[in-house]
Amino acid sequence: MRISLNVMEEHLDNQNTNANRTFAHQFFIPKGVPSKNVRFLIKDLSDVMAFRTHTVTRISKKGKQYFQEVSCLGDGCPLCDYAFKTDGKASSSYARDKIVIPLIDFDYVDSEGNKTPTISYWVRSSNFYRNVLALYVSKFKGLLDGYVEVNKTGTGVNTTYSLFPASGDDLPKLKSVDEYLKDFDVNMEEDLKSIIYELNAEQMNRLIPHESNEVEVPFEEAPKRRVSTHGF
Ligand SMILES: [Zn+2]
User: Fold this and answer.
1) pLDDT tens digit string along 35-47?
2) Structural domain of residue 190, as residue ranges?
3) Could you give the CA distance from residue 185 to residue 52 in angstroms, rounded to a whole number?
4) Is 17 within the bounds of a domain?
């Protein structure tokens, strides 16, 4: 179809917006690192966000496997159907309850090797909520008010985490949750879009490998990480 130059310009603007689209960090502790210091950006347990998601296995353009949480649609969800057909063992898991904890990762190391405090989102299971987070919050009064040391033991599916109050002696002066949200210019709703993907049924169908189209290209690849280091 013939389009006006205005419409063409609009398309160009949209392309540029998409090209610059940034992605929030998922919190993780790299191999060989025993612990990290964080500040949870929640005031109490009721601030923890819960979602029902499928964990979808994806392959980046560079051939690296990564995982993406995709929000379950409930009744008639294509990823639920697919998980049932494949016993949850193929590229999408069954739908499971997950929690997302926003935090500042004080031991985040950027691509140039510098330690840079960064806002990250920790996706964990509902079991983690009950058996680790809630347990430690009751064990250590005031845990959510200060720095927290997250310890990691084991690897793969046997990874376990423990939480301890951290002294913060080597860390910047502690601020309130609201101050961190302001200093790091946090737009949580926007960030969550790249932590938990909200897809419609058609987009989900494109994620599912079919005999006729074994390679799926449903949404942008190669997430560009958002680096937010204000206030330090
Ligand atoms: Zn589902």
Assistant:
1) 999 999 999 999 9
2) 25-207
3) 27
4) no
Tell me if the pTM is above 0.85: no
Which amino acid appears at position 103 of this protein?
L
Give 61 or 148, the one with higher predicted confidence. 148
Write down the pLDDT at residue 231.
45
- Whose tokens are 């639920």? That residue is 80
Q: Total domain count for the chain?
A: 1
Question: 72 in a domain, yes or no?
Answer: yes
| Residue 48, in any domain of the structure | yes
Residues 6+ away with beta carbon under 8 Å from 31: 155
What are 52's strand-pairing partners?
97
Please, what sign has the CA dihedral across residues 69, 196, 25, 174? negative
Q: For residue 19, how far is its CA from the centre of ligand 1 (angstroms)?
A: 29
| Residues 24-82 pLDDT 10s | 999 999 989 999 999 999 999 999 999 999 999 988 888 888 889 999 999 999 999 99
- Distance in Å, CA 195 to ligand 1 centroid: 17
* Distance between Cα 93 and ligand 1 center (Å): 9
* 13 is a domain residue: no
Give me the residue label for tokens 């449903």.
218
